[in-house]
């Protein structure tokens, strides 16, 4: 599986669009985020970081998963003896590695912005911002796992992209509305809800154990279901 991940990363880093995205997101954080106080600065950065990571998810998903189907690389990998499970897992691992690099780039830009002495952003606030970024990174990885489920089960990149759009942009608002109107805790038990709760608990100085079921139930569960469906799917040669 290491070879599959390595091949994915090599192909991805040859694409100029990735470096254009990195520069764009870096400059956006530096020049668009504004705050008159440290608290306003951190809040603004959180919004910008979430936008950056979701934007990166679309590019990563389109290049990594789209190329898999357009070039026939996946079929060639299966022909060389790689199992479908390894292909599904390696694709998500590759996506997570690239998204983590984007996350670190965004954090570097945020640190540069927070060096403004007038705002007096503390080391603690920068630490919690990094924690927020890690949780947003986990959310992005989960969104791509959902997109992969629909892509591998349907064989359509469009289906994966639509699922990615719904999860990353619309689903949280829909579940929050249902929870507030019907008093059913659908948001609290969804992937983002568990991560939000875990982040809040960590901020309070305790262990946010909710991150464990979020990873096991949703990430591992999605990968497991994707592999089951993909194993039964016939590929067109």
Question: Would you write up a description of this structure?
Answer:
The protein has 237 residues and is mainly alpha-helical. It has one domain (2-232). The protein contains 9 helices and no strands. Helix 3 (38-70) packs antiparallel against helix 5 (84-113) and helix 6 crosses helix 7. It is globular and about 60 Å long. It starts with a helix and ends in a 5-residue tail after the last helix.
Give the SSE map.
Blueprint: H1 2-13, H2 16-32, H3 38-70, H4 73-79, H5 84-113, H6 123-154, H7 157-182, H8 191-203, H9 211-232
Helix pairs in contact: 1-5, 2-3, 2-5, 3-5, 3-6, 3-7, 5-6, 5-9, 6-7, 6-8, 6-9, 8-9
Give a short synopsis of this structure.
The protein is an all-alpha fold and 237 residues long. The protein contains 9 helices and no strands.
Q: What gap, in angstroms, lies between the N and C termini?
A: 22 Å
On the 0-100 scale, what is the average pLDDT? 89
Largest sheet: none
Structural class: mainly alpha
Q: Count of helical segments? A: 9
Domain count, please report it. 1
The number of distinct β-strands equals 0
Please state the CA-atom Rg, rounded to the nearest Å. Answer: 19 Å
Q: How helix-rich are the residues, as a percent range?
A: over 70%
Uncertain runs are: none
What is the string of helix and strand elements? HHHHHHHHH
Shape: globular
Instruction: Please state roughly what percent of the residues sit in beta strands, choosing from under 5%, 5-15%, 15-25%, 25-35%, 35-45% or over 45%.
Output: under 5%
